[in-house]
Design goal:
The protein contains 3 helices and no strands. By secondary structure, it is mainly α.
């Protein structure tokens, strides 16, 4: 008995999976943070009290 051909979304998904698997050796997977909880606390502090730089500082940073 023959199987029906794969649908276009399935083929696209399999193609993306294949590309991801091929690119894994080129990815940067090194963990640098020795204390990940300090990073999580910094994220939380930024969510509770965000800091928006002044316009002049932002333009000099982007330039």
């Amino acid at each position: 008995m023959m199987r029906p051909p794969l649908s276009r979304p399935t083929l696209v998904g399999l193609g993306l999976l294949a590309v991801a698997l091929v690119l894994i050796p080129l990815s940067d997977l090194e963990v640098i943070a020795t204390d990940p909880w300090s990073e999580v606390l910094r994220f939380g502090a930024g969510l509770l009290a965000p800091s928006f730089p002044a316009g002049a500082e932002l333009t000099t940073t982007l330039a």
